[in-house]
Every structure is written in C-alpha cells, then in structure tokens.
Amino acid sequence: MHKTSAWPLAGAYVVLIVYASLYPFAGWRDQEIPPWDFLFAGWPKYWTGFDLAANVVGYVPLGFLLALSFMRRGNVRYFANHPNLAGIAVAVAAGTVLSFCMEGVQNYLPSRVASNVDFGLNVAGTLAGAVVATALELAGAIDHWSRFRERWFIPEARGALVLLALWPFALLFPAAVPLGLGQVLERLEGSIAEWLQETPFLEWMPMREVELQPLVPAAELLCVALGAFIPCLLGYTILRSVGRRAVFAIVAVALGTAITALSAALSWGPNHAWAWMSLPVRLGLVFGLLLAMLMLAVPRRGCAAMLLLALVVHLSVLNQAPASAYFADTLQAWEQGRFIRFNGLAQWLGWLWPYAVLVYVLLRVSRPERTPTIPA
C-alpha cells in the first residue's frame, strides 16, 4: 500500500493559511481583550462579497485534504460503521480549531480584524471541502485515482508527488529567468548584511570585487532548459514505464510554459503574457524537453543522480545573475495587490522549491532501492 499524499499536502495548506492569516507578522500589540472576544461581536461594519467568498473558498481545500487524508490513511478502526462521517467530523474539527486560533491571534495584529463571520465562513468552507471529498470517495473517484497512481507511480512516490504538486504554484511568482526557481543569493547576502549592521561580524562577510552581471543568452538558455528538465527528472524517479515518462515530460514542460505565461499576464497584463518568450527561452524549452527525452530509459537511480547534478548547475548559474531593476519594479504590482499574502507565499515557494527537491533526492538516494530501478 502506498502512502497518501493528502496528508503532507494538508500540512502545506495549513502553513499557507497561517501565512495568509497573520501576514505581515509585524506591529504586534495587546489590546487587553480576550482572544475569543470576536465570537460575541456583531456583524462587521465593512465587508465585501469577495471577502465572504474568499473566507469560504480558502478553507475548502483544507477540508478536502484533511477528510481525504483521514479516509486514505486507514485511521477508521474505531469508526468502522461510519468512516466517511468520521472523516468529515475530524476535518471540520481541525478546521474549526485552526480558524479559531487564527482569528484569536489576529486580535494582536493592527492590520487584521478578527471576525466571527470569517470564523463561521471558514468552518463552512472546511465542511464543504470535507463533503466533496466524501462524495468523491462514495462515487469511486478516489479509488480510481488510487488505481491510476498504482499503474503510473511506484509506492514510495508521496514526497515527489507533493513537490510536483507545489511546482506550478512556485512558478506563479514572476522569476527573473523563466522557470528559474531558487535565485536567492543576492537577496540572502543583502538580508544577512542588514542583520549584521552595527556588529563586528559584518566584516566577516566576503565582499564582491565586481557586481553580479546579467546572464548572457547562452546562460539564460541553460537555466531555462534545466528549469524544464528538473521537474521531468523528479517525475522519472517515481514513474513506472518509459511511455509514461514521455507523456509526463511533455505535460510538465507544457504546464511550466502555461503557468509562466499566466504569471506574466498577472504581472504585466494579458497583452504581455508571452513577452518573456525570447529566442534563448524558446531554445531552452526545446533543449530541456530534448534532454528529458534522452533520459527516458535511464534507471531511476540514474535519474536521481542526474537530477542532483542538474540542480547544482542550475542553482549555481542562476545565482550568478542579479534581478534587474526593471524586474524589481514589476513586482510592485504583486506587492500592492489584494493577494499580497498568497503572492508572498508563492515567492517563498519559488525560492525554496529546488532546495527542497535537493534534500528530498539526497534522502532518496541514501536509502536502498526496494523496487526495480529499470522502468518496465
């Protein structure tokens, strides 16, 4: 039996909710009122239809993933007669506790307003998501997915599937180089220097003799190619056959292209959705897909080793380039938009995703292979 991916995805979504609920994590103050005082407040004076819908929709995936995780993990030994109802109850209880904690903590943030309406809508969204998961379970859709997963992926596929599910969301935040996730060196150096201001440790930091230079077209082509190649290799480490690898590679490159276009449309407007598709980028996408096709018949451990090499080269080349001033200006629209909290999370995903893949692959190759390493 394979381990369900719903549980780690639910954990990731809880992090998203906490981030979205408490951003910007600044200006904490004590109003000397109980954290649960919002439960007895009246209807909020200022509200919009978008806010109401967002509070419901934002918790639907949480309810869905929690209920699905409960049903898929087999934790129904004490609820053998009503496992689906138990899944709904557990999901709603967890969503209720989370929403209550978030609303209570918001009392200490000047930029947030705790609301019993938001709390009720969050619980309703959790219930709706749990009901949808139960309905899909009763209709056999979840079993159909399980059979599909067993045909396509090896049993130890949970970690890679979670990372692959997060990859499109990491691409949503605009990157200086298309598909170039993990460009953190310049920002990291600046943050460390700021933290070390007025301390003797500032002199310990290595000083650059020259400023970072923009990538030449050949280096940009390489970064784009590796950015498309890396998720393909990650999928290859868990896919069962050569044919399924080929389908996955085509879908992955197409999805990465589409998400990058969506990110550009959200950043610069629909008319500029494909403005990033320069000649080096087009050649990089083709080269990345060609590399993926050349690796179709390579055993899973070989793909994991190539993935480590591709990650190291990609991050090394990408972090030798700065983000241009023009690109930094384009992020103002994201930072001032109504989705600022979720955009900030997408930015963190874009920064950390390749490093999470690096850790995951290192852990995978350090364990003995339990299944055949050559695709059937």
From TrEMBL:
Keyword annotations: Membrane, Transmembrane, Transmembrane helix
Protein name: VanZ family protein
Stored InterPro entries: VanZ-like (IPR006976)
One Pfam family here: VanZ
Record field: transmembrane: 7-26, 46-71, 83-100, 120-139, 160-181, 215-239, 246-268, 274-298, 305-325, 345-363
All residue ranges annotated as the VanZ-like domain in the record: 21-134
Origin superkingdom: Bacteria
Keyword Membrane in record: yes
